[in-house]
Design a protein that fits this description.
2 helices; 4-stranded antiparallel sheet; flat; 2 domains; 25% strand; alpha+beta
């Protein structure tokens, strides 16, 4: 009798463990999982003002109803600072290129090597 109780408990445990990934997979495909707003909202820019405050520009809506919202974001609230028509997207080459970490590290090593020779 004790063996059947132990086996039953083990089967229930395995069933629950198997259901967790299935539930997560289903949650990703429901509106509660966050996929319902795909393509309707996107972040245009974010400017950190301090460790807990930032100004964020987001695009909301589609087609003729598109708007850009400039939002003030703090830990306690989100405030609409300005609403405007969407601007033309900046060309890909207009944003300054950020050097790769390897390039920065190489430059730092090179600078330290020159300073050590003096």
């Amino acid at each position: 009798m004790a063996t059947s109780s132990w086996l039953s408990s083990l089967l229930w445990f395995l069933a629950i463990i198997a259901v967790i990934p299935l539930a997560l997979w289903l949650l990703k495909r429901t509106p509660m999982g966050g996929t319902a707003s795909h393509g309707v909202t996107r972040v245009i820019a974010a400017l950190p003002l301090s460790t807990s405050q930032r100004v964020v520009t987001v695009e909301v809506g589609q087609g003729e109803a598109r708007r850009w919202l400039v939002l003030g974001v703090t830990p306690g609230s989100i405030t609409t600072l300005h609403t405007m028509e969407p601007q033309a997207d900046a060309p890909a080459g207009a944003t300054p290129a950020v050097p790769a970490f390897a390039q920065l590290l190489g430059k730092l090593r090179q600078d330290k090597g020159l300073a050590g020779e003096r």
